[in-house]
């Protein structure tokens, strides 16, 4: 059951003439596995064969945007748990905030459009969103460990600030 009962059609303000195809989760999510999963006719057509928008740009923008959204919830997130192990209610709130600001994710509207379709392709509060959440949590955890191991490096994580 999806965390949020939002219609796929209501998740973005883009042209609704054709919905993006469902994309199944790869066994291991890497840049290469994402490129393979999203390299289909729908996305090739939408990106002019990946010429007008590069997949690396889309993923980079999604990661950056995710960090900004997750900062609003840093006091409620614990690094002792994976993102998936946080409460259903918290994950749903993060997901709602994530979607509410997605149009401002990048300056380039084409990147926002492709990123939005990526998320729609992976389902309601789907595997791409959950992967982005875990990526943010893992990054924060690494920064916290670096801070502990090398305090002279003056690394300050958002969780410690």
Question: What's the layout of helices and strands?
Answer:
Elements: H1 31-38, H2 41-46, H3 55-71, H4 88-100, H5 109-121, H6 127-149
Helix pairs in contact: 3-5, 3-6
Report on the structure:
The chain starts with 30 loop residues before the first helix and ends in a 12-residue tail after the last helix. It is built from six helices and no strands. It has one domain. The N terminus is likely disordered. The longest helix is centred in the last third of the chain and has 23 residues. By secondary structure, the protein is an all-alpha fold.
Give the gist of this structure:
Residues 1-11 have a biased composition (Basic residues). With 161 residues, the chain is mainly α.
Strand proportion: under 5%
Computed over alpha carbons, the radius of gyration is 16 Å
The helicity comes to: 40-55%
Biggest beta sheet summary: none
Count, helices: 6
Report, as a whole number of angstroms, the end-to-end distance: 36 Å
Q: Look at the helices and sheets and give the structural class.
A: mainly alpha
DSSP summary, beta strand count: 0
Region (Disordered): 1-24
Biased composition (Basic residues): 1-11
Protein traits:
161 residues, globular, mainly alpha
